[in-house]
Design a protein that fits this description.
460 residues; two-stranded antiparallel sheet; 60% helix; globular
Length: 460
């Protein structure tokens, strides 16, 4: 059989069929739910990222888990974190609904003597606490501030010693103890004997001496207890001064004795960039190392501010005793040194923007230029996935450094400029909030700022 085409040519019909190419249809991509996007971002920053404060979640939780109370808690905290990075009314509502559902499921699990003691239940409670810290921005330290953590500690006490045999569960209990400790310090509450006992039990299971971050936490407990005794008037001024100086020397020794993999390298530069306060910066082998050092520095600043306050008389004037004048001078020097070192930790994490942005930033201090692209390919005004949290975690140490009356005005101005850069380049809204606080000259309690920033939800 032959057919005649429009041009008058004869074609074999069979050949037409034989040479037809199959038509392939590319299916449209499947949409990824907001919740799944949220969990991906949460996992990157909390479970498998550089700091990974919740790395133990991989051992307890599976997306196919039948533990509804844990699954819903993961959904709630992941959505809350996504909303903190990319605010959306829809995401915020989904997070709130997931939280309410998770609370109901956890309450149901607590009614069961079997479920109440499961790893999944303690982890769910930890995640609900994390949700509260991410979403709460008011410095309300009483009532519900530590309710979830206190409840989790009660559950731990109900379990046997075998829970300390699993390394993943021990890491989960370490996170619980760290968050509880921070809550006590931030809310100016004494550290409970139950928390001290938990930490002692955990430390007894370490195959090697605890790492510097754990040792630092032990010193922070001493600081919290000493501060309580000073506030209650249990120690006279002279006794308090001696105790504070002794504790400060322990922090100094910790910094001297850190093992090689917890040390940083000091890099000197011939020409300072916009992100150098002095002509040097620090390079840390990992972000958790930088966090350890900055926690040490900011705690020493707060501690030495207390020492300085003990060198004043009741009218707020410097005491005339040569001994107290020397103590005041040394405390002032320690604060300046710690503040400068905090500033030196910034260049490693703040990122290099393109020259067009630097010029706009240098001229105005707050860019209103058209969005450009940085080296990582991230538009200005859009947070970099790898830089956002490391920068965010520097805000509190920078605030502690700049708020001290012992530092020179040049450092205060430099910190404000860096915070505004974080806001402009990395789209970190809270950086501008803290910059404005410093610029106003208003004295805001450090731990109120810590809560404003989301406390250990971000500054872990």
């Amino acid at each position: 059989m032959h057919v005649h085409n429009a041009l008058g040519r004869n074609w074999n019909a069979t050949a037409i069929v034989a040479t037809k190419k199959p038509v392939t249809t590319v299916p449209p991509s499947l949409p990824v739910s907001v919740c799944n996007q949220a969990k991906d971002i949460f996992y990157h920053n909390y479970v498998v990222g550089s700091a990974k404060p919740f790395d133990f979640l991989q051992s307890v939780y599976s997306p196919a888990s039948k533990d509804d109370h844990l699954s819903k808690s993961v959904d709630a905290v992941a959505l809350a974190y996504l909303n903190s990075q990319r605010p959306s009314a829809r995401t915020e509502e989904e997070a709130r609904q997931s939280y309410v559902s998770a609370i109901e499921c956890v309450s149901g699990a607590l009614q069961s003597s079997h479920l109440a003691q499961q790893d999944s239940t303690i982890l769910a409670v930890l995640l609900l606490d994390l949700y509260e810290k991410i979403t709460t921005r008011e410095p309300a330290f009483h009532g519900a501030w530590a309710a979830h953590l206190t409840g989790a500690l009660t559950l731990v006490k109900l379990r046997g010693d075998e829970q300390f045999d699993d390394p993943s569960i021990v890491r989960m209990l370490m996170r619980l103890s760290t968050n509880l400790l921070i809550s006590c310090v931030a809310s100016n509450r004494p550290v409970s004997s139950d928390l001290v006992l938990l930490r002692q039990t955990i430390a007894s299971r370490f195959p090697t001496p605890p790492d510097p971050k754990w040792q630092e936490s032990d010193l922070v407990i001493e600081f919290a207890s000493l501060r309580q005794n000073i506030m209650k008037g249990i120690l006279a001024d002279n006794e308090a001064t001696v105790a504070l100086i002794e504790l400060d020397s322990k922090f100094v020794r910790l910094g001297i004795q850190v093992p090689p993999d917890w040390q940083y390298t000091t890099m000197r530069v011939d020409t300072k960039s916009n992100h150098h306060y002095e002509s040097f910066h620090h390079i840390h082998p990992a972000e958790h190392v930088a966090q350890m050092w900055n926690t040490l520095r900011l705690t020493r600043i707060l501690l030495n501010e207390l020492i300085r306050s003990k060198c004043l008389d009741r009218q707020g004037r410097p005491k005339t005793s040569p001994q107290f004048q020397l103590i005041h001078k040394r405390a002032t020097g320690a604060i300046k040194d710690m503040a400068i070192d905090i500033c030196a930790s910034l260049p490693q994490y703040i990122d290099d923007p393109p020259m067009s942005f630097l010029q706009a930033f240098g001229q105005t201090g707050s860019s209103s230029a058209t969005p450009d692209f940085g080296k990582c390919g991230t538009p200005i005004g859009q947070p970099s996935p790898t830089r956002h949290l490391p920068c965010y975690r520097l805000i509190f140490p920078l605030y502690i450094a700049a708020q001290s009356s012992a530092v020179p005005p040049s450092l205060w101005k430099w910190v404000i400029k860096q915070l505004r850069f974080m806001s402009d380049y990395h789209a970190i809204e809270k950086a501008m909030t803290v910059a404005n606080m410093l610029d106003s000259g208003e004295k805001i309690a450090p731990w109120d700022v810590y809560v404003l920033l989301g406390s250990y939800a971000f500054v872990c």
